[in-house]
Amino acid sequence: MRPLFFTFNRRRGEIPKELQTCLTRDVKPCHVSTEHTALETTGRDRPGLMSEISAALYELRCHVTAAVAWTHNARVACIIHIEDGLMRGPIMASKKLAQVHEKLESVVEAHHESGERWSVRLTAPAVGRTHTERRLHQLMYADRDYKQCQGSDGSCRQWNGCTNTHVTIEACREKGYLVVNIRCRDRTKLLFDTVCALTDMQYVVFHAAISSKGTMADQEYFIRRQDGCSSNTQSEREKLAQCLIAAIERRESHGLRLDICTQNKMGLLSDVTRVFRENGLSITRVEIGTQGERATGTFHVTDASGHEADLRTVELVRQEIGGSVLRVYRSPNGTSRASSSSISRNSSGEVEERAKFSLGNLLWSQLERFSENFGFIKS
Question: How far is CA 318 from the centre of its chain?
Answer without folding.
Answer: 24
